[in-house]
Amino acid sequence: MAPQFQPVHYERRLPLATRLRELFETWTRPELPQEVIEVSRALMEYEGIKPPACGWDAYEDPEEGGIKFEDALLWPEGVPAILNGQWPPKHQRA
Known about the structure:
This protein has 94 residues and is mostly helical. It is 34% helix and 0% strand.
């Protein structure tokens, strides 16, 4: 995939990916530690991917025509949401 911005700091990916793997190896459900979230977002940035326009923490209520978080995952769970035109969200809720 082509980067969404320049310059992309690809050299920072390996340390972040290694740290993320360590965090997942020790993670137990249900709570997702804040460090996992922060490292994941940083890794996406160092892959050249911008945050979504609606922000990382946007939530679209399924009862109001939105989608569940797990349906927003790109592979494979998010594909139905993408195909149904539900992702990315069209607006940000206040």
